[in-house]
Amino acid sequence: MVLAQPIHKSNGKATLANFNRRTHQPVSKVVYSVVHTVPGRMRLRIPQLRDNTAYIQRLQTLLEVDPLITSVRIKPAAASLVVTYEASQVSDAKMRSRLSCLIMTANDANVVLLDQKKPIDAKPKENAEEGAWPGLQLSVVATGLAVLGGPLGLSVPPVMVAGTIALATLPVFQRAIVGIVMQRKLTIDVLDFLAIVITTVQGQFLTPALMLSLIEIGENIRDRTARSSKMQTLDLLNSLGQFVWVERGGEKVQISIKEVKSGDTVIVYPGEQVPVDGSILRGKALLDEQKLTGESVPVLKTQGQPVFASTLVREGSIYILAERVGNDTRAGQSIKLMEEAPVHDTRMENCAIKIAEKAVLPTLLLGAGVFAITRNAARAASVLTLDFATGIRVSVPTTVLAALTYAARHGILIRSGRALEQLAEVDTIVFDKTGTLTKGEVAVIGVDSFNPEVDSDRVLAIAAAAEQRLTHPVAEAVIRYAEAQKVVIPSRSKWNYKLGLGVEAEIYGEAVYVGSERFLRQQGVNMEALNDNNRVNSVIYVASHGQLLGRIRYSDILRPETREVINHLLSVEGVEVHMLTGDNQRTAKAVAAELGIAPANTHAEAFPEQKAAVVRELHEQGKTVAFVGDGINDSPALAFADVSVSFAHGSEIARETADVVLMENDLHGILEAIALARNAKKLIRQNTSIVAIPNIAAMAIAVLFGLNPLGATVVNNGSTIVAGVNGLRPILKNSPKKALPSAR
Fold first, then answer.
1. CB hemisphere CA count around 315 (13 angstroms)
2. For the chain, N or C: smaller number of CB within 10 Å?
3. Quick check: 19 pLDDT over 50?
4. Which parts of the chain span the membrane according to its record (predicted)?
């Protein structure tokens, strides 16, 4: 592990003093500069690249094994390094820090270079199960041999065909045994296995080969639509970054986030996430706590106040006494609560398959009865072949896969067949407010003038002039609003920003103050124009020459589509809508009233544990609950919901927890997903009829009059194919919204 002192800037260049932990000997400094940067790409100039081949090799190796870096280009003659990286996974500031460490680490001649053929943390492919039996491949080979030796009349040894069928039948046999021994019931696989054995013994190889191919195709499609029950462990530390600045022995060093311990003094700079829970030792900062608490407006925190992991330092820098680290932090406990949520069955539990399973024993007895009466094994095999379970096992997953594919093409990621099934049954939707029903960002909602000689546009122009180039969310909102109103923004000559209070600026020779009431009073501004009747929350004031000119009101405004979506859910779908928020009761009720959400369904001042409790309570009332949220504080509720929905721009933990991810970040996706799910459920019912009716009719013929096993296979497989094609209809439709009114 390499420790590093902070970057010191001098004449536009950055240097970093590194120390090797093993030898405690300093590594010589590497001078470099950032030439150009855009999101996802950075170009640096490192003079050492011109004449140090060993350094180039070490640096290139370290960069290439980094999982966040997608490409590396080094030009020694120009001393140039260009890297591209996953901008969606790491911020520009974090990547600068990461590259600093790698640039310095490469200068250590003792660094052990890893074999590039074995990348760090290489993950095996999801479907590459070690020792997996090639059932589908064998069944296809068996079908090919049966066709060559049957209809085509080629000389294919029967032993070869029968042997291939026997090998391909092994998965079916294993599932049948598991059903009998472990589940203590006769499953569909028992019927399949008996029909395959009987027809194979009789030398009718094409029938069992076709059966096996369809069975394996169905199983493969079915597995593709199932979400693994082993949810990937969500590590809070991975979502916070890789390195942390700490103060040890009077020096600032950069260490791995996993090495931070309780009692350490952690330093957090602007644009970085707080990696621990603790209290501020010194400094002050404006903290964005939205992902943890849901509060959209940053809060100012100073010495002695608590701070929490996963919150973002917008402005200022702070020294924190680490009290809780990793999964012991408040954010870590949210993840722990999420992981304790019940794991649902990963395959669709539809009534059609259950009915098919209940028909196994009657079908088996019927086949035995036919054989007992006729002593004709072929007729008995026909009865066993005509179960409608095979068709259902193929058509249902095909329908689900088509629906999931269609949804993905239209910006809706539905992770599993079970999620699709639950979406079709949803009768209650719980929305988090901040970032879900609202934009999750500050926006100006009005400008008021308190001076008859100054209109509101002038108040806005003065405020925008004072706030320009500040990174505070309210300042940015004022600039956006001024530009939208096409207000001419004057220039400022001098300015002084006071963290958490406001900004003092000189505009046209006038001293202007923009900020909180407290700030303006400190500057001696006359605030008599304010009274209890016109005071509002979420406001900044504008003053000049010691006189109050006006104020700018701001808020976290609703998404443009929110009212339409909520109204559709309430009036058209008849869905019960709830709203959860960490805001106070007054704010929550105002937003709920605006959207038509009942007061009884509005839950304010809700922490992660309370959000999960609300979802659990609704579920225990027998409701099928969908939860929509995007923050770390939403992850427990997402995990406990029957079906969970998040946005592509939400927190990494929320995205990983969610069953449905709206890639377009638009609430209309919920309506589309529900419509698609209900339409898929309707298709599954149709497919059940398409499969069941011909098979039941053919079974009656087989029992009463007799039916050749190949004919039974044609009926069985033909209905399966028709149902499968019908199941592909979702990907042929123009818009899932059309299915909404009739899908109920």
1. 17
2. N
3. no
4. none
Tokens of residue 101, six digits: 């460490």
106, 62 Cβ separation under 8 angstroms = yes
Task: Count Cβ neighbours within 10 Å for each residue of 340-357 and write b for 16 or more, e otherwise.
Answer: ebeebebbbebebbeebb
**Residue with the larger pLDDT of the pair 356 and 427:** 427
Return the closest-CA partner of residue 384 out of 369, 366, 358, 402: 366
**Does residue 117 register a pLDDT over 50?**
no
Written out in words, the top-level CATH class of the domain with range 241-324 is mainly beta
- Spell out the CATH class of 412-438+559-673: alpha beta
DSSP string, 299-354: EEE-TT-EE-TT-EEEEEEEEEEEEE-GGGSHHHHHHHHHHTSPPPPSS---HHHH
Instruction: Say which CATH topology domain 439-557 has.
Output: Calcium-transporting ATPase, cytoplasmic domain N (3.40.1110)
Q: What per-residue confidence (pLDDT) applies to 182?
A: 77
pLDDT band at 233 (very low <50, low <70, confident <90, very high): very low
Q: Looking at residue 191, what is its pLDDT?
A: 77
Percent of the chain at pLDDT above 70?
79
* Alpha-carbon gap, residue 619 to 514, rounded angstroms: 49
**DSSP H or E run through 484:** helix 473-484
Crossing angle between the packed helical segments 377-385 and 709-727, to the nearest 10 degrees = 10
Q: What is the rounded distance in angstroms from the CA atom of residue 673 to the CA atom of residue 681?
A: 12
Q: Which two three-digit tokens encode residue 555?
A: 């808020």
Burial of 124 (0-12, 13-18, 19+ CB in 10 A): exposed
**CB-based contact 3:19 (threshold 8 Å):** yes
Of 183-192, 430-439, 610-619, 678-687, which gets the smallest average pLDDT?
Answer: 183-192
Task: Give pLDDT tens digits for 368-389.
Answer: 888 888 887 777 777 777 766 6
**Model confidence pLDDT, tens digit, residues 155-199:** 888 889 888 988 988 888 888 888 888 777 777 778 778 878 887
CATH number of 33-106: 3.30.70.100
Sign of CA dihedral 559, 564, 570, 575: negative
* Angle between the N-to-C axes of helices 377-385 and 188-201, in degrees from 0 to 180, rounded to the nearest 10: 140
Least Cα distance to 470 among 297, 316, 317, 318 occurs for 316
Nearest to 420 by CA among 628, 126, 682, 726: 682
Reported pTM: 0.58
Of 408, 535, 510, 516, nearest in space to 472 by CA: 516
For residue 253, the SS3 value is: strand
SS (H, E, C) 485-552: CCCCCCCCCCEEEECCCEEEEEECCEEEEEECHHHHHHCCCECCCCCCCCCCCCEEEEEECCEEEEEE
pLDDT at 13: 34
112 pLDDT higher than 60: no
Measured between its terminal Cα atoms, the distance across the chain in Å is 59
469: left (phi over 0), alpha (psi -120 to 50) or beta: left
- DSSP 8-state class, residue 242: S
